[in-house]
Amino acid sequence: MITEYEIAFATLKGLNQALATELLNRIGCEERFFALSEHQLAVEMGFESKIFARDYRDQLLEHARNELEFIEKNKISTFYYRNEDFPQRLTDCEDSPLLLYGLGNCDLNSAHFISVVGTRHATPYGKDFTARLVSDLSKMLDNVVIVSGLAYGIDAAAHNAALQCGVPTVAVLAHGLSIIYPAANRNLAAKIANGGGMLLTDYQSWMPIHKGNFIARNRIVAGISDCTVVVESGLKGGSLITARLASGYCRDVFTLPGRISDKYSEGCNRLLLSNGASIIRSADDLVSAMRWTAKSLDEQPKLFRELSADEQAIVDYLTSAGEAHINEICVNVNIPIAKLTGILIDMEFDGLVLTYPGSKYRLA
């Protein structure tokens, strides 16, 4: 069980795991750090610091006692950096938090942790790829956990895809567990916490939301995972920050290419041009690049059904055209419009094509 002294110690300003370990090696334990006077700490450490100030340490302890009450009342899990259940991947990250709070039930040291991130303005192209990626990974690998940030767009698509496939998903929050942001994702958050996943944060419950928190939480999204997949992104955004952090932690980064005219593929294409990420077209690309062992083919269900002659003609045309209006498809594949409409609906249902505003279609 976490103590008030560990909670308070974990919130000391400017403290990373290396400095925290050095401090405790000299002081002995967290409780003694708060018991000693400012002068005694300076003598034992060999230097003076503002974090030794009595008023500052007393304030941290007061917040910690309130947080401990919140933890016990709401059955919050805690992951302290000196304990075995702390996410071991984060121990490789210099700026990793010392303490994490979690709501739900998920093994944070499971075999395959994959972050899937992207723009809040996800397109059908990005959402469909996210759903297929997570679904195929769930079939190919054991002990998969999907990580994202509970934001609109690709984040929500990744969490929902994991829930639909029955694999755990971790939502890393930029605030304490007393609130959910955005509020529209409260139902999704509840499904995650109750469905074998976890809401995870390094912020205490009383701390207000600050825009800087959303950038800071990306270090956890990147660091807790073996690799990061950027599905869609503009030229600026949190997803690119997550990709940069992941690269800094020596994690693999993958991104989905898009057309040069697509606004929310510009960031992904830029990552590819700058060698900031490897291209990903399917779960096979990721599993192969990570050198993970996939389940045997005999264990996997058949992912795609055989195409009819009409469906194959549509696929061949869209492969060359890229995108086409239903009337253009009708003319070029010579299928009556009434029949074509039914075929396209079936193909969309089976994940073979995507529909866009204006009755336009593209291969999924």
Commentary on this structure:
There is one protein chain. The chain is α/β, with parallel strands linked by helices and 364 residues long. It has 16 helices and twelve strands. The strands form two sheets. Strands 1-2-6-5-4-3-7-8-9 form a nine-stranded mixed β-sheet, with helices on both faces. Strands 10-12-11 form a three-stranded antiparallel β-sheet. Helix 1 crosses helix 5.
List the defining traits of the structure above.
364 residues; alpha/beta; Rossmann fold; Arc Repressor Mutant, subunit A; nine-stranded mixed β-sheet; three-stranded antiparallel β-sheet; 12 strands; 45% helix
Largest sheet: 9 strands, mixed
Strand order of the largest sheet: 1-2-6-5-4-3-7-8-9
- Share in helix: 40-55%
> Residue ranges: pLDDT <50 for 5 or more in a row?
none
DSSP strand (E) fraction? 5-15%
Number of helices: 16
Shape designation:
elongated
Task: Report the structural category.
Answer: alpha/beta
Rounded Rg: 24 Å
CATH architecture of the largest domain: 3-Layer(aba) Sandwich
Span of the ends, CA to CA: 48 Å
Domains (count): 3
CATH top level assignment of the largest domain: Alpha Beta
Tell me how many strands there are.
12
Q: What value does the average pLDDT take?
A: 93
Oligomer: single chain
